[in-house]
Amino acid sequence: MDVRALIKTHKKIIENFFSISILNAISQIISFFIVPYLVAVLGFDTYGAYYFIYNIALYIVLFGTYGFRYSVTRQISIHRESKEKVNTIFNAAIVARLLLTTMAVVVVGIAVFVCMESDDKLMYLFALGIVYGDVFIPTWLFQGMEEMRYVTVVNVVSKIIFAALIFAFIREQSDYIYILILNSCGYIAAGILSMFIAFKCYGLYFKLPRIADVRELLRDGWHIFVSNIGMEVYRNSNVFLLGVFVSDAAVGIYSSVEKIVKVGQTIINALPMAIFPHAGRMFHGESISNGVTKLLKMLRVSFVLLFFVALIFACSPRLVILYLPSLDYNVAKYLVWLMAPVLLFGCLNYIVGVVGLINLKASNFFERNIWITGAVSVALMLLFCKEYSYYAAAAAWSIAETLLFFLCLHSVYVVKKRGGIV
To answer: Residue 1: what pLDDT?
Structure first.
């Protein structure tokens, strides 16, 4: 097959890959300037206090997102030729997200107002714009339709608004409580723009869904939702546990380096994200054995490439110091070494777990593996974070990602042996 034919055959994947890559590049360029600016203005201690509340908001977003990022994406991808079916799925997902988000806001809000200081309570209220703005950003719709350029437009607008507001209004340490208002402005703008695109470009419209439709979406996304919760337990609980048992300064140091690793993951995951809806349609109606064979080929190539990416990152602590000059070199060096495996195994997990197990209708295996991993990660943090602080958090993250990879790989072989049709 010549290059032109190959490009034509995979036009949507290539287009989506570049859309996601452009989004990631712009996002990271903006973050490249914002994070060191905030650390310089606020200091690690105050930056950690802001990031702690922001992390709570992300947990609420996670709960409200349910498993829709993958389950609804797959449904949209399969039924995208039917406008009425897509509209039914769209409305059921929005209503379900509103209900789930409101439940989480109330429960978490009670805990915040009972247990936290007045500034933290105020920041929690300011963060609600993030939570509800995200409800109306249907990434699953655009990904399922394989038109990720809309996600790029929406997110770039959101991030540019946030960045402009940060540099305009955050000038001294006491301004930190307002950062979440500025975050919220970006999310709300993105939500409004997303709804405009959904109505204008796809001809969708609001229609109160049937309870049965909402219940069906919740049932279909259950295993993925539980997996997502478990995933966040080991990926974000480190920040929470450092905040509870160590200090805001430890949160600030760990999260600033963690953000660099997550930037790398986001860039690398552009291709498997673009492939996910295509794989859903490709595996649909095919034998599980053939699906697993295609997945393993992708995995072998990815392993070699990601190994070199992780190796390069492990050799780059001096670049981290250039990015975060207020961070001690020895601290940066050990955190980089401890987190490097995440770039290898974390990205492989997206391929074998999300692209693989979820599309092979084996999300129950993914769920089990995630929770085993989450339990191990939290146990390591509880045992070692008081003594080793952010080093314990970095090591727990890498161990968790490595364990998850081998558990998911074993599950793929179990699924293949079980056989059947996707």
So the answer is: 46
Record the tokens describing residue 390, joined without a space. Answer: 């952010």
Q: How far apart are CA 136 and CA 127, in angstroms?
A: 15
User: Between the CA of residue 167 and those of 161, 182, 359, what are the distances in Å?
Assistant: 10, 10, 42
CA dist 270 and 19 (Å) reads 9
H-state helical runs in 315-346:
317-323, 329-341
Q: How far is CA 282 from the centre of its chain?
A: 24
List Cβ<8 Å contacts ≥24 apart for 34-37. Answer: 34/162, 34/163, 34/166, 35/256, 35/259, 35/324, 36/323, 36/324, 36/325, 37/166, 37/167, 37/170
Q: Tokens in use for 363?
A: 């999300």
Please provide the DSSP assignment of 162-184 as one string. HHHHHHHH--SGGGGGGHHHHHH
CB atoms within 10 A of CB 50: 23
Query: Distance between CA atoms of 351 and 408, rounded to whole angstroms?
Result: 10
Amino acid at 124: Y
- Most distant CA atoms of the chain, gap in Å: 65
Percent of the chain at pLDDT exceeding 70 = 94
Instruction: Categorize the per-residue pLDDT at 248 as very low, low, confident or very high, splitting at 50, 70 and 90.
Output: confident
How would residue 6 be classed by pLDDT, with cut points 50, 70 and 90?
Answer: very low
Whole-prediction pTM value? Answer: 0.73
Residues 6+ apart with CB under 8 A from 7: 14
Q: How many CA atoms lie within 13 A of 122 on its CB side?
A: 9
Q: In angstroms, what CA-CA distances link 108 with 24, 124, 297, 338, 399?
A: 30, 9, 43, 32, 29
Q: What percent of the chain is modeled with pLDDT above 90?
A: 35
